[in-house]
Design a protein that fits this description.
There is one protein chain. The chain is α/β, with parallel strands linked by helices. The chain has a single domain, classed as Creatininase (Rossmann fold), CATH 3.40.50. Helices cover 41% and strands 9% of the residues. It contains 8 helices and 5 strands; from the N terminus they run αβαβαβαβαβααα. It has a 5-stranded parallel β-sheet with strand order 1-3-2-4-5, sandwiched between helices. α3 links the parallel β2 and β3. The protein is globular and about 50 Å long.
Length: 249
C-alpha cells in the first residue's frame, strides 16, 4: 500500500460507536423475542499463523471489529459471536494453526443459517479470511436456493499485502496494539497473490514464505489502521443497508 498523505496519517482516533449493537452473546432470550429482529450478522474468522508478529486470531478480531462498527446504531440488527476457526489448510505447516476445512465450514454455515432463519428474516456472513471464501459462497448459495435471505461480505486488502503485511498489521495496531510484536515483524513474499496462488494452493503458504507473511509490515501504523478500518466498515455498512432496504421494499 502506498504511503498515505500526512494529513490522513494524522487522522483522529476512531470515533466511539454511537450505540452498541445487540450482542447476542450477552443477550437474554426474552429481550431478543420482544425486540426488533431484521438482520443477524455473523463474523467468520480463522485461527491461523499471521507471521511472527501478529496473533493467530487476527482475522477473527478484524472481522468482529468491522462488523461491530457497521452494526452500531441499527435497530433490529444483531451481532452474533464470531466463528473463530475456519478453512486454513494452506497454513497447516505452521504450528498453532487450526482448521476445520472447507467442507466442514460449509456445512456449519448452512446449518447455522437454517437455524438463524427461524428467528431472523435475513443473515449476513462477514468473512475475514480469504481461505473461507469458497465455503461462505457455497453456503450462501445453498441457503438462497432454500428460500432464505442470506448474503456475504468479504474483507479485502490491497494486492501484494494479503497476509500479515502492512495492512493487517496497521489494523491490529489500531485495534489492539498490545497484541502486535513489532520487534518480530519481518518482510515476507511481496509478489501479487495471483502470481503465487498456484504454488500456495498446491503446497501451502510455507512453500512461498518461510515466515508466513505475504506482504511487508514495514511502515504499519495505528493511524493507517484506523483509516483502513473505517473504509472496511463503510463497505460493510453499504452491504447491510442494501439488505435492510431490500427487505423494506
Amino acid at each position: 500500500m502506498p504511503d498515505a498523505p500526512t494529513s490522513e496519517l494524522a487522522a483522529p482516533e476512531l470515533a466511539p460507536l454511537e450505540s452498541a449493537p445487540l450482542d447476542l452473546a450477552g443477550a437474554y432470550w426474552p429481550g431478543v423475542e420482544r425486540g426488533s429482529r431484521r438482520l443477524l450478522v455473523v463474523p467468520v474468522g480463522s485461527l491461523e499463523q499471521h507471521g511472527p508478529h501478529l496473533p493467530l486470531d487476527t482475522d477473527t478480531r478484524i472481522a468482529a471489529a468491522v462488523a461491530r462498527r457497521a452494526c452500531a446504531g441499527r435497530a433490529g440488527v444483531a451481532l452474533a459471536p464470531p466463528l473463530p476457526v475456519g478453512a486454513s489448510g494452506e497454513h497447516a505447516d505452521f504450528p498453532g494453526t487450526l482448521s476445520i476445512g472447507t467442507d466442514a465450514l460449509t456445512s456449519c454455515l448452512i446449518e447455522l443459517g437454517r437455524h438463524a432463519s427461524l428467528h431472523w428474516p435475513a443473515l449476513l456472513l462477514v468473512n475475514g479470511h480469504g481461505g473461507n471464501v469458497a465455503a461462505v459462497q457455497t453456503a450462501v448459495g445453498r441457503l438462497r436456493d432454500e428460500g432464505r435471505d442470506c448474503a456475504s461480505w468479504h474483507a479485502e486488502l490491497p494486492d501484494g499485502d494479503s497476509h500479515a503485511g502492512r495492512s493487517e498489521t496497521s489494523i491490529m495496531l489500531a485495534l489492539c496494539p498490545d497484541a502486535v510484536r513489532l520487534d518480530a515483524a519481518e518482510r515476507g513474499d511481496v509478489r501479487p497473490l495471483a502470481s503465487i496462488l498456484p504454488l500456495l494452493r498446491a503446497h501451502g503458504v510455507r512453500a512461498v514464505s518461510a515466515n508466513g507473511v505475504l506482504g511487508d509490515p514495514a511502515g504499519a501504523s495505528a493511524a493507517e489502521g484506523r483509516l483502513l478500518l473505517t473504509r472496511l466498515a463503510d463497505s460493510l455498512n453499504a452491504a447491510i443497508e442494501g439488505l435492510v432496504e431490500r427487505r423494506r421494499g
